[in-house]
Amino acid sequence: MCINSILIGPVQLLIKDGQVEVVKGTSHDPEVSLKLSEGNLSKLLKDDLNTAMTLMTGGLKVDGNISFALKLQEIVKCYN
Q1: Phi-psi region of 36 (alpha: psi -120 to 50; beta: other; left: phi over 0)
Q2: HSE (CB half, 13 Å, CA atoms) of 7?
Q3: What residues contact residue 66 under an 8 Å CB cut-off, 6+ apart?
Q4: pLDDT at 53
Q5: Consecutive sets of 10 residues in the chain, 80 residues long: mean pLDDT of each?
Q6: Minimal CA–CA distance to 70: which of 40, 31, 26, 25?
Q7: DSSP string computed for the chain
Q8: Is 3 in contact with 15 (CB distance < 8 Å)?
Q9: Pairing between strand 60-64 and 2-5?
Q10: How many CA within 13 A on the CB side of residue 24?
Q11: What are φ and ψ of residue 56, in 5° steps?
């Protein structure tokens, strides 16, 4: 999964076998890419983002497998 934030640029979350690795840049081919602001990224990671509303208003853009993006929200809920 690639997350492209306005201030930090692209980072990738490599999720495999129950482990998450954060990699700066885009060296891997992601199943889904998210583009959002720093504020929305912070809210997403705190499980405090209304993703449906943010998608509809353009504050979150998804490219690729949207069902995988929805799984990210479920993963985040496990850690909050």
Answers
A1: beta
A2: 6
A3: 32
A4: 92
A5: 62 80 82 86 87 91 86 74
A6: 31
A7: -EEEETTTEEEEEEEETTEEEEEES--S--SEEEEE-HHHHHHHHTT---HHHHHHTTSEEEEE-HHHHHHHHHHHHHT-
A8: no
A9: unpaired
A10: 3
A11: -65, -30
Going by C-alpha positions, the residue among 16, 2, 5, 1 that lies closest to residue 43 is 5
The amino acid present at 19, given as its one-letter code, is Q
Q: What angle do CA 15, 54, 76 make, to 5 degrees?
A: 30
pTM: 0.71
The two structure tokens encoding residue 8: 């930090």
pLDDT of residue 4: 61
In degrees and rounded to multiples of 5, residue 62 shows phi and psi of -120, 130
